[in-house]
Structures are given as C-alpha cells and as structure tokens.
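Anyone? Bumping this.
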Amino acid sequence: DSGVTQTPKHLITATGQRVTLRCSPRSGDLSVYWYQQSLDQGLQFLIQYYNGEERAKGNILERFSAQQFPDLHSELNLSSLELGDSALYFCASSVGDKTWGGYTFGSGTRLTVV
Amino acid sequence: EDQVTQSPEALRLQEGESSSLNCSYTVSGLRGLFWYRQDPGKGPEFLFTLYSAGEEKEKERLKATLTKKESFLHITAPKPEDSATYLCAVQDNYGQNFVFGPGTRLSVLP
C-alpha cells in the first residue's frame, strides 16, 4: 500500500456521460498529480494541484477538470466521455510544490467507456 | 520539448540471464532521471533517481547508470518476480511534472 488512495478501482460508463475520480494523497503530502495511461500513449501528465491551488497543467482536455479540497483530497471530473477516454487514471502525491524526486502513485482507476 | 524513448519495447529473459534496458532522453536542463517499476494494473513504483552523468544506484538485482544522453537499467541474474514494465522519466530544472517514456515490458521465464 503506497498510502495514495484512489476510488473507484473500476468504472464502466457510456459515451456522453460524466464521471468523477477521487484521490486521497499520502499523509503529509500537499501536492496531487493526475496522469492518464493508455495503451498507445503511455503515462501522460494531466494536472497538478498544490494545497488547493492549480500549479501545472499538461495535456488535459477541456472536457476534463480537477480540484483539490481543503482536506487535500482531489477529484478529477471527466465529462462528455468518448471511447478514447478509456484508460487508467493515476493519482500521485508529493510533499512539496516542486518535487525534486519521485512521486508516490496510487493504484489507479480503470475507466472503460462503452 | 522534453522527450524520452526506451528500448527494447519488450524483453524476454530466462531466469539468471542478465541484460540491460535503455532510456534515451532529450531535455533542456536535466534535474533528474527516474526509474519506476509498474506491475499490470498497478501504479508505478519508484526505484531510483539519478541526477548527474556518471552516477550509479543499486537495489538488489538492479543497477541504474546515467550518461549525458541516456540511462541504463542493468538487471543481474533476474528472477521471475522481476517481470514488470520498467518506466523511465525525466524532470527538467523547472521542477514541475515528469515526462515518462513508453516503458520496457520485461518477462523473466523460470
């Protein structure tokens, strides 16, 4: 157990729908990072939050959004889902804003869009 | 733009047969190079950080090395439990997100 908790583990939904993925960072970590992993694209950085504020943005679609709450948990919202959004979504956490080292990853949420 | 490539894409070894995985990178200013191990359906697990050319890190049967353009992950006398996908990532001097390579899928047969 890495200490980073992601729920749900699996999610199956239809095209056009909206889902919310949840992440609780490791105790003491203030940064949360979201990554998407698909078979053809590998691990792609989506977005980072630090202590409730957005810090960095990667290849995140406009249909996707995220936030980090006062208790430091984070949610990734995916809307108007398309078949191509099917992927593993990982959350990672770290202590600081800029991480001079490795992240701690959660075990991921597998999203299947049908 | 930072880029990371890894080779081979997949590697099958017999138990005890040593080999190396390659990670080649292009980054404007390298802050760190990271190796992760990922088991199927699991999140990546941090292995090593390398910061400067010539640096080496070891953990059990794994040894990571770094040059100015690439890194190698050497696996000595591997066991079936070493089977996993090994990911390489680079971080630039701005210290924000990582850029991950596509990974090498390692299978060690008993």
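Late reply, but here is one note on the structure posted above: Residues 53 and 68 of chain B are 6 Å apart (CA to CA).
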